[in-house]
Amino acid sequence: MEMMKDPYTILGVDRNTPPDDIKKAYRKLAKEHHPDTADGNEEKFKEVADAYETLSDPQKKAMHDQQQYNPFGGAYSDNMFEDLFKSQSFAGSFNQRFGFNSKGRDTSGVLRISLSDAYFGTHRDINIGMKTVKIDIPAGITNGQKIRLKGLGQRGQTEELCGDLIITIEVINDNTFFLDNQGLHTIKNISIYDAILGGKDSIDCFDKTITFSIPPGSSNGKVLRVKGKGFPVYKQEGKYSDLLISIIVDIPTDLDDEDKMLIQKIKTKHDGK
């Protein structure tokens, strides 16, 4: 079966061309291809006349404009549908209209949670259309990770063909801890005496108290790594990343004269070396 030609292409116009301009295009081509002229072509003349008959009648033109997007009504361009299906929004409405088994598009969103919720795991109730959906957020989830909820995206032709809802997690660091790809970070003030002599200290980390060692001669800003005491590893129960403690050495401000004399003796001793 021969494919029907596009009347717009035949007349050299488009869908937005005014009726008067369509008529002018028709008259020019009809005169050019009229069988009574020297270079006339009866087949071309009939083709032009049929095209004008379609486009000059509002009802026929409207029917044509509707059918040109329907493969069952005749296609006028070899690659028209390929081009149209590159647009997901068109494909969705096209398939819903004409009964194709199309899959709905995936949709996405961002969900912000606290660092504490990310540490312990939590859940959120979100409203999607007319229903409320519970999202389970596992312990150890980190910034930028995604949760895919099957079938909760754009509606497809059937329930099985609905798109997915993809939620990107954004973890908000708090004033005590922050998380990056190296581990869980915090800051701890220590005394100058522990910094010089070494010692032990402790820090409260969410649900536990962690004791750590301070090496002798620790300088201000030194980072102490406590193995396996940081953030839960995602979906690996009982496993934790490292805890990184940046120390700030406190300089005492309440020294008496005796304290100052002792420090001066130490300074003098080391200055003489």
Question: How would you sum up this structure, described in words?
Answer:
It is elongated, with a radius of gyration of 38 Å. Helix content is 32%, strand content 27%. Residues 69-100 have low confidence and may be disordered. The chain has helices at 7-11, 19-33, 42-56, 58-67, 80-84, 88-98, 115-120, 192-197, 257-271; strands at 107-114, 122-128, 131-137, 146-149, 165-172, 177-180, 183-191, 199-205, 208-214, 223-226, 243-250. The protein folds into 3 domains: 7-84, Orthogonal Bundle (Helix Hairpins); 107-172, HSP40/DNAj peptide-binding domain; 177-256, Urease metallochaperone UreE, N-terminal domain (HSP40/DNAj peptide-binding domain, Sandwich). The longest helix is centred in the first third of the chain and has 15 residues, at 19-33. The strands form 4 sheets. The chain has a 4-stranded mixed β-sheet. The chain has a 3-stranded mixed β-sheet with strand order 1-5-4. The protein has a two-stranded antiparallel ribbon with strand order 2-3.
Tell me which oligomeric state these chains represent: single chain
Between the first and last Cα atoms, what is the distance in angstroms? 104 Å
CATH architectural grouping of the largest domain: Sandwich
- The low-pLDDT segments are 69-100
Look up the CATH topology of the largest domain.
HSP40/DNAj peptide-binding domain
The secondary-structure element order is HHHHHHEHEEEEEEHEEEEH
Radius of gyration: 38 Å
Write down the domain tally: 3
Class by alpha and beta content: alpha+beta
Strand arrangement in the largest pleated sheet:
6-7-11-10
- What percent of residues are in strands? 25-35%
The H-level CATH homologous superfamily of the largest domain, spelled out, is: Urease metallochaperone UreE, N-terminal domain
